[in-house]
Amino acid sequence: MPPSDRIRDHAGQGATTVAAHRTRRRLRADQARQLADLLRQQLLADGFLDGTLPHETSLAADYRATRNTVRQALDLLRAEGLVERQPGVGTVVVGRKYPHGLDRLMGLAETLHEHGRVTNEVRTMGPAPAPAPVAERLRVPAGADVLYIERLRRLNGIPLSLDLTYIPLDIGTALLGADLENTDVFRLIEAITGRRLGHAEITLEAVNADAHSAAVLEAPRGAAVLMLDRLTHLADGRPVDLEFIRFRGDRITMSGLLHRSL
After folding, report:
1. CB 109 within 8 A of CB 153
2. For the segment 8-41, what is each residue's pLDDT rounded down to a tens digit?
3. Contact in structure between 208 and 222 (CB atoms under 8 Å)
4. What distance lies between CA 22 and its chain's CA centroid?
5. For 62-68, which contacts have Cβ atoms below 8 Å and span 24 or more sequence positions?
6. Tens digit of pLDDT for each residue in 42-87?
7. Which is it for strands 197-208 and 158-168: parallel, antiparallel or unpaired?
8. Fewer CB atoms < 10 Å away: N or C end of the chain?
9. Of all helices (H) and strands (E), which one includes residue 177?
10. Position 134 pLDDT exceeds 60
């Protein structure tokens, strides 16, 4: 075989080896992500009663995975702040997420009452001209004043969400002297109007935290946060509360019960 052919043949074998290595690495990354998803579900459901995950060897046997795959999966959970490696102990659960249902219309304190006390730091509050999209959704005249509220909401003292709220001024004026630090806006609106809330339209998406939001939530700048856009109506259909809520994605989970209807 001429030298040039031998070089090409060797180069071809090398390319095949590199491709195979990349394929194995990709497959291991896929398997690690799948395993991380399964372990995350268990630890968020308090599936590890003593707060300690099984040894890597046990996890590898239980899930028919390699030790490298298990370690990579645990690295993913560690990067999320959910677990930590402690010498002489193993991998322990150090973070938790709190459940927020999407199938019931409830305030944050009502939703999380089993997990502790929700308090609100009112950062900004007062009348402000409604931006056009806000006026349209609240069905008030363009440029009309609405009550604008910005609150940092904590659970057991830990920053959980940053809420930006717009309320029609005929309702909002009565909120100016209310105890917003310890009471959900939903309860206050029902007390002021004498009517029950009826339904809400919601949109949930992931966004990157801007510098202001990250600083207030004590989250890394650019971290992913869950943005909940919620327009709440009274039982008679009137829109009364437009909110843009940024939740720390590492401290909250969203869940709901869905029924199939064709």
Report:
1. no
2. 555 565 656 767 667 766 787 889 999 999 998 8
3. yes
4. 33
5. 63/35, 63/38, 65/31, 65/35, 66/28, 68/28
6. 888 888 888 899 999 999 999 999 999 999 999 999 888 888 999 8
7. unpaired
8. C
9. none
10. yes
Compute and round to an integer the Cα radius of gyration of the chain: 25
3-state secondary structure of 78: helix
Euclidean distance between CA atoms 136 and 5, whole angstroms: 73
Report the Cα 17 to chain-centroid distance in Å: 41
Rounded Cα–Cα distance for residues 74 and 84 (Å): 9
Point out which residues pair with 6 in neighbouring strands.
none
Helix 67-79 with 3-44: angle, nearest 10 deg: 60
**Best CA proximity match to 136, nearest among 107, 162, 166, 164:** 166
On whether the CB atoms of residues 232 and 105 are closer than 8 A, the answer is yes
Question: How many angstroms separate the CA atoms of 36 and 27, rounded?
Answer: 14
- For tokens 């402690």, the residue is 86
Instruction: Write out the two tokens for 68.
Output: 């490298």
What b/e string do you get for 186-211 counting C-beta neighbours within 10 Å, with b at 16 or more? bebbbebbeeebeebeeeeeeeebee
